[in-house]
Amino acid sequence: MKYLEIIKKIKTIRLNKGFTLSQLSQKSGLSKGYLSKIENQTKLPPISTLQRIARALDIDLTALFANGSSSNEDSKIVVVRKTERKKIGEEQQASGIVRCPLADKKFAPNIQPFIIELPVDHTTIYQFQGEEFHFILSGKVELIYGDKHFVFEEGDFVYFDGDVPYSGRSLGSKPATIFMGQYRYKRDHGRPFERPDVLFSNAHKTNGE
Questions:
Q1: Residue pLDDT, tens place only, 105-119
Q2: What angle do CA 4, 10, 15 make, to 5 degrees?
Q3: 55 vs 77: CA distance, rounded Å
Q4: Most buried residue among 86, 123, 138, 199 by CB atoms closer than 10 A?
Q5: Domains in the chain, start-ordered, CATH in brackets?
Q6: What is the pLDDT of residues 181-200, one digit of tens each?
């Protein structure tokens, strides 16, 4: 998707939800002037800014990158062929994870399915109100979940609540590939902790290896 289409989608969703720039400014914490500038430029703002706008609009960030309609007139069924997958890479998000949204044609689905490539040096910590699962398609993955430490290989599956701080990274020389699903009770887009190394430095239990 071209950057201009993403910017147009921000304005379209805002208008569909009946938000003025002033209201979006209050909800996002971004100035009215800055939001107006975003809607009238061709350069994509930083991913952190897009996350704040998405939270304020009560949508998932991936809805801005999706190919589907920004209205509520969605199909009851969505099919995404292998050749139709779109990657959200490092240039569009700060985590370094490469994501392929699978509900690419569905506007703001309740369950967010992805195929992701997890970096070897990934240490970002997440926590949110919802649930998540990982099915390892290839490679080897280390998961730190609270004070527990797990290692998963191809064919392994894990399902967990997101209210416990967690982080994961690939083990080996190249990123592991994972089928991931996420459901948020609240569309809060929970932010990472400020200390991305705390779980790995404190991990001492080994379970499920």
A1: 776 677 889 999 999
A2: 130
A3: 26
A4: 199
A5: 3-58 (1.10.260.40), 82-202 (2.60.120.10)
A6: 998 775 544 444 434 444 54
